[in-house]
Amino acid sequence: MLAGRFRQAMNNQGTPQDILRAEANGRPQGGVWAVRDYHTTLEKRAIAGAEVTPGYFYMVVAATVMATAGLLLDSAAAVIGAMCVAPFMAPSRAVCIGVLFRNWPVFLGGFAKQLVGLLVIGVSVAAIITVILDRNVSGIAITHEILIRAMPTTRELVLSTLIALSAGAAASLALVAQPHIVETPWGQIIDAIIGVEIAISLVPPAAVIGIGLALGTPEHSLNALYLLLLNVLALDFIGSGAILVLRGVRLRYLELEKKIRAAVVVTLRSRLDVATTAV
Hints:
Elements: H1 2-11, H2 16-25, H3 38-50, H4 54-73, H5 76-82, H6 89-100, H7 104-136, H8 144-150, H9 154-176, H10 185-200, H11 203-214, H12 218-246, H13 251-278
Helix pairs in contact: 2-13, 3-6, 3-7, 3-13, 4-5, 4-7, 4-11, 6-7, 6-12, 7-11, 9-10, 9-12, 11-12
């Protein structure tokens, strides 16, 4: 459609830049459009969030060890403290933004990164730690903190889902409520705080799966798995996605930004060629 308008513009003695300017003038005003290349910045964040690095695995291990100890100690404070190092903000955003921008490699990369971190590394580390403690320390047993994730009541299930929804919404609001601070140090501080809220919906259930397997209570592991998958759905797709859609994040605006930049590059190169020829 845009290519056809380019051809029409050329027939009317216009330029591709004129048509891009007209397209841009028809976009929503303010908000995310007040920030240069905002949708491109989101895409770059999603791509980075889908990348797997050694540091990601190290942080998952550290968070899981602390969460497992807190769950077995029946300490809510210790469990929450473990979330301060959990690195699940980036892959969660990669999943959500990848879907909105129809960038399926980014979506699959973020989703795989998230699930491998939780269901492979998290579960394995929690199970190993629990087995070691069970064989060497007395009093290792199912605690109330574990039962909240392993045998949740209807009230606990609803509230846990609500926490995941609000965490996903907060992660997206951090990007769109004040978009001009996304790439500033203050924006990074906000991300770190929201990352704790995201991790509290993901890491403890993953650790409970491993604990249940280690202590011979597979029914606890299965229930925690269901809770974890429900939280991932609420966090990645419903909470995060709904806010971004409501705030106007669209694939067509990302494509428009790229076309505008491409048109600017073509214009600058043509003028540079003219200037060089004149000299």
